[in-house]
Amino acid sequence: MDRSGVTLERMRSFVRVAERGSLSAVAREQRVGQSTVSRHVADLESVLGVTLLNRTTRRVTLTDEGRRYHEEARTILRLVDEATDGARSAGGGLTGTIRVSCTAALGIRHVCGMVFAIQDRHPGIVVDLSLSDTRIDLVQEAVDVAIRLGPLADSTLQGRTLGQSRRILVASRAYLAERGRPRTLDDLAGHAAIRMSNVAGSAIVPLRGPDGAEVRVPFDGPLRVDHGLAAREALARGRGIAVAHLWLVDDLLADGTLEQILPDVTPEPVPLSLLMVPGRTRIARVRMLVDALAASLAGLPGLIRA
Fold this sequence. Notes:
It is built from 9 helices and 16 strands. It is α+β, with helices and mostly antiparallel strands.
């Protein structure tokens, strides 16, 4: 076998096709034609003398040989990245691209500024920041670090819990002046609720009183939104009452636009975590970003430290 044909370019194309299950998706990711990615994989198979992928018109799957080679190739590529990163760092600072995923509202309100500050300290770092409330597969999407709100379900990834994000009931001064201030939980039934339609179970809000007992309160109204910034805007414009993370509305509370209501009852806080692909944190630039984000997020308004 002529090992000179086993190039890193061909190996990377194969690994990404194995992870994404699509030649066209990898072609878009690498900004090349699908024929180029297909040729990379075909050339690699020719050099190795085995079939790595089963191809149909609908999907691409790994052969048994492909599964074994994928694991070994991924390890090799990680070691190459680590060695390259280490050499560049020794030559004068961290360089390279880091892909970060974050829930949209948190990303826009706070994480963007954190990323800007990190890049100011490390001008050689390129951050590809994806903001979406849809949970993605980090391996499939080639994401290095994800900032997650909510329980972590994927045990194959490396998690780092930062704390619990405190939530409160809020409404605008204008809304309360017009509709009156709720004094008890029963009063909520007569008010307009701004509900997050993309949060499972948001029609019922579990609240804890000062005695620690949980009460489940129906929560609905004429406006439902699927984005935290839309809920923030609706609150500021007096459209109703909402359960909001403190980091989403801290400035509106400070300037008096919003007020906390029923402060003696609180919604359950939500876990805030960093999620990483195992092995990626061995790369210096990724490790730096994880540590820097963890330190910055520790100061997030309303975060109850782990």
